[in-house]
Amino acid sequence: MADYRYRIVDVFTEQKLEGNPLAVFPEAEDLDAATMQKIAQELNLAETAFILPPTRPGCVAQVRIFTPTREMVFAGHPTIGTAWVLMDEGRVEAGTDEFMLDELVGAVPIRVEGAQLWLKTPPISWGPEFSPAACAAVAGLTAEDLLPVTPQLVTAGNPNIYVAVRDKEAVDRAMVDSARLLALREGLDPVCFFVFTPTATGAYSRMFAPEHGVVEDPATGSATGPLAAYMMHHGLAPRHAGTRLVSEQGVKMGRRSLLHIVVRGASRLRKKAGDRLLTRAAQLLRTRICNSLQSHDREGVVLQNPFSAAC
């Protein structure tokens, strides 16, 4: 029965045992999706990544990403963490400054700048708006805790409902009611719930994803590009190319993470039919998200019989 080696890296931090931990299986080509899901459930991290041979031309590897309850089409910290592992294991040619990972959302570009790894956010789309009072109730807050900005679903492959509140204290008081969240997103696919307050450098944030088996996520790369778009649209961040923001996340749960954003290209947003907004990353809004400094690899281990290919 086969053994499967995996590594745990802490992403979006320069401090060991902070940031968002990620399990990466470097040789997962013999595992089927059902087994991958069982492994992710057993490890019970926000996400677990599995590296396979690429299916798209120009990509160095395929990456499949699982939360404890479902497979994701895209997620930020598994993308950055897996890219780091591929580089550390010599599967990306030394000196390479750009490469792509094959994910369900498509080919995801990675850029290497010294000790920093950046990803380009997939195209961002805008969904329905939500009642501020209903969102406050989901978060266990009052309507007075919210900024006068309408909560809205925004996605780059992983839908988030963004709720802007008045201060860090309100962010830290938030605790999502799963039943209220289910009622709020009725008729939609499972969503994440992102609570934040603007800061001088960007945002102070928390993200909850009970439907994904994640009570709270220490760092959510897939949510950070859409966060920048939402803030820019509502005047909570500068609306011009070159804007730099930092989302500070995970503080309340003792896993402080710093997610850096750089906006590339024009920052205008255009109105679409049905009161929805659409940004096209290739021509309107482009964001890049980086690991704040360098991922810290923790002890490599071997996963033995319980998840062997024969199971």
Model description:
By secondary structure, the protein is of the alpha+beta class. The chain has two domains: 4-115 and 295-307, Diaminopimelate Epimerase, Chain A, domain 1 (Roll); 125-291, Diaminopimelate Epimerase, Chain A, domain 1. The protein has six helices and 21 strands. It has a 19-stranded mixed beta sheet that branches. Strand 17 and strand 18 form a beta hairpin. Helix 3 (132-138) runs antiparallel to helix 5 (178-184). It is globular, with a radius of gyration of 19 Å. The model is unreliable at 266-311 (pLDDT under 50).
Q: Compute the gyration radius: what is it? A: 19 Å
Query: How helix-rich are the residues, as a percent range?
Result: 10-25%
Low-pLDDT residue intervals, each spanning 5 or more residues = 266-311
The N- to C-terminal Cα distance equals 9 Å
Total helical segments: 6
Structural class: alpha+beta
Largest sheet, in brief, is: 19 strands, mixed
% residues in beta strands: 35-45%
**CATH homologous superfamily assignment of the largest domain:** Diaminopimelate Epimerase, Chain A, domain 1
Key descriptive features of the protein:
Diaminopimelate Epimerase, Chain A, domain 1, 311 residues, single chain, 19-stranded mixed beta sheet, alpha+beta
